[in-house]
TrEMBL record:
Repeat is among the record's keywords: yes
GO BP annotations, alphabetical order: rRNA processing
Record's keyword annotation contains Cell division: no
Signal peptide region: none
GO annotation, cellular component aspect: Pwp2p-containing subcomplex of 90S preribosome; small-subunit processome
Protein name per Swiss-Prot or TrEMBL: U3 small nucleolar RNA-associated protein 18 homolog
Subcellular location: Nucleus, Nucleolus
SUPFAM superfamilies: WD40 repeat-like
Major location category of this protein: nucleus
Family: Belongs to the WD repeat UTP18 family.
Keywords: Nucleus, Repeat, rRNA processing, WD repeat
InterPro entries (alphabetical): Utp18 (IPR045161), WD40/YVTN_repeat-like_dom_sf (IPR015943), WD40_repeat_dom_sf (IPR036322), WD40_rpt (IPR001680)
Length: 413
């Protein structure tokens, strides 16, 4: 298999399409060098992961972390393209089944003393880790070795925010010290510098998100500006404007609506077809809005403030809505909010205090009492993400760590 055929194979797997058998076979294939075949296999596995039929390793590290009786070993059979989650027993409130695994960045420490971003790949068992050193790493997620597949250095560019594109073929990296940003193509193995003209008024790229429909990149600017770029070409489209600085953005799962939250405590709802604000309201009791998240089923909007309060709103909201639940477990500024993909867990984080993270059981609106414990020692958490089917939880902190946890209720990656 030559290079072009290998890339075609990767693209088909990442797009979820079936590979067909070759109509003919070159006799020279039988004479292929074993080392060359090994390198091609490593490249393939590096992008799309091992196929479902791959055998589970029985090395001692797995036996130490998971008992032989654990049914969640089945999760590790699936490290290639992801299967859909099967509907099973509802998640119970009170205590959550959670296990600490080896760090995601076990095989690399190149992201710096402060790891700012951690994110799971949308279709394969890969994770992106990035930090203030200006280096981003792609690792294969298995919970044990978490092998580094690639490390990319962006010169004089401290990474504050990094996200995969929706199709998973690229990732975008931004910095608070730069209005320009970088894009890395996983299929071609090359990075691209994306210049941003000073006329649009963008001064930094440390707080942005991708629309779930794969069309837009939305970035928080200064003076209430929200800059929109095309996700495909990375070109600037337009700038939206709200009162006060925009501190957080989130999209509905179809990308048709965007919510923004600002320093004045106002939440704006935007129609992304007309690019106009169709509704705005004050977050109840909020002085300064800092973080926003929307559940994957579009039923709940979570808003975090500088006082540590998280308000949970049932959608659609009225003109002057009251929270469905107010969560008071954090005492300092809410820096990150994130729902898992099945919308039954809300992670709430403050990066101003050690171990300031709570997991909310959304159906009952109660916090799980057994995480974190005093022995978890998660430090000051900068970023949090759930794997596509909820099997893993990733955290980045200010101690050079990208922590990895197994959520045992969820049987798929």
């Amino acid at each position: 298999m030559n290079k072009s055929e290998t890339v075609d194979c990767l693209e088909k797997n990442m797009n979820g399409k079936k590979n067909f058998k070759r109509a003919w076979r070159d006799e020279d294939d039988k004479k292929s060098n074993k080392e060359q075949r090994k390198l091609l296999k490593q490249k393939y596995v590096g992008i799309v992961g091992k196929p479902k039929w791959a055998e589970i390793s029985t090395d001692q590290s797995k036996k130490v972390l998971l008992d032989d009786e654990d049914e969640d070993l089945d999760l590790l059979k699936y490290s290639g393209n992801l299967a859909r989650t099967k509907k099973g027993v509802n998640l119970a409130k009170g205590l959550i089944g959670i296990k600490k695994l080896h760090n995601l960045n076990l095989s690399t420490s190149s992201c710096g003393k402060i790891v700012k971003s951690v994110e799971f790949h949308p279709t394969s068992s890969l994770a992106l880790i990035a930090g203030i050193s200006g280096r981003a790493s792609i690792v294969q997620v298995d919970g044990f070795k978490n092998d580094k597949l690639q490390s990319i250095k962006f010169q004089k560019f401290a990474i504050d925010c990094a996200h995969f594109t929706v199709d998973g073929k690229q990732f975008v990296a931004g910095s608070r010290t730069q209005r320009n940003f970088y894009c890395y193509d996983l299929m071609e193995g090359r990075s691209m510098f994306v210049p941003v003209h000073h006329n649009i008024g963008q001064t930094r790229m440390d707080n942005f998100c991708m629309s779930p429909d794969g069309k837009l990149i939305a970035s928080c600017g200064k003076y209430g500006e929200i800059h929109l770029f095309t996700a495909k070409s990375k070109e600037w489209i337009t700038t939206l404007k709200m009162n006060g600085a925009a501190n957080s953005l989130t999209f509905t799962n179809d990308g048709k609506r965007m919510y923004s939250f600002g320093e004045n405590g106002e939440i704006y709802e935007w129609d992304m077809n007309s690019r106009t604000c169709i509704k705005k309201f004050m977050d109840d009791g909020c002085l300064q809005g800092t973080s926003l998240a929307l559940s994957g089923d579009n039923q709940y909007l979570a808003a975090g403030s500088s006082s540590g309060v998280v308000n949970l709103y049932k959608l659609p909201c009225d003109v002057n809505p009251k929270p469905d639940k107010t969560i008071l477990n954090l005492l300092t500024t809410v820096s990150k909010l994130s729902f898992n993909k099945s919308s039954d867990i809300l992670a709430m984080v403050s990066n101003q205090k050690n171990d300031a993270i709570k997991l909310l059981h959304v159906p009952s609106k109660t916090v799980f009492s057994n995480f974190p414990t005093t022995s978890d020692n998660v430090g000051k958490v900068n970023c949090i993400d759930f794997s596509p089917n909820g099997g893993y939880l990733g955290l980045s902190n200010n101690k050079s760590e990208a922590l990895l946890y197994r959520l045992t209720h969820f049987k798929n990656y």
